[in-house]
Amino acid sequence: MKEIAASQAYRLLEPGPIVLVTTSYDGKPNVMTMGFHMMIQHAPPLIGCVIGPWDHSYQALSETGECVIAIPALDLAETVVDIGNCSGDSVDKFQRFGLTARPAKTVSAPLIAECLANIECIVADTTVVDTYNLFILAVKRIWIDETREETRTLHHRGDGSFTIDGGTLDLRDRMVKWRHLP
């Protein structure tokens, strides 16, 4: 086996798909690309996400305590990367990238109509934000577009390379210890 730098661990363990995070601050919606997130708990559902002060969305999330995590599919791959290459402090990303903002039910941040799913969240815990830029979010509502033809998601491997989600393997009959989970 070949040893690689410890700093490359994220390239092997990236936990989930690249997502888009929307916020709304002073009536202005914004969207950012995010790869560092994780499920923390099943019930109530909690998500951890890293958004630092270098991100324009940090102030909006800190001030409002709410956001939407939108899950794009492969057909938005180039848009997802391009969103991550500019800042909402100088660009209206919804307009520039032709995204359709839809009102959420619980939060002021918008849903993104072009995404597979949208998860409305509120900040549940900020105790590790100052140390690790890690926001703990409580899931309030989830919206799924079951009519989308493209459902494959993107998983960032670093340096602009991605793994594309594919088929599924159903091993539910073997998950006897975890059957009680919804």
TrEMBL record:
Keyword Flavoprotein part of the UniProt annotation: yes
In this protein, which residues make up the domain named Flavin reductase like?
A: 11-163
Q: Which SUPFAM superfamilies match?
A: FMN-binding split barrel
What is an example of a Pfam family matching this protein?
Flavin_Reduct
* Cofactor(s) needed by this chain: FMN
Gene3D superfamilies xref list = Electron Transport, Fmn-binding Protein, Chain A
Q: Which InterPro entries match?
A: Flavin_Rdtase-like_dom, Flavoredoxin, Split_barrel_FMN-bd
- Cite the entry's keywords alphabetically: Flavoprotein
Q: Which family does it belong to?
A: Belongs to the flavoredoxin family.
Q: Which PANTHER family match?
A: FLAVOREDOXIN (PTHR43567:SF1), FLAVOREDOXIN-RELATED-RELATED (PTHR43567)
| The protein's name | Flavin reductase family protein
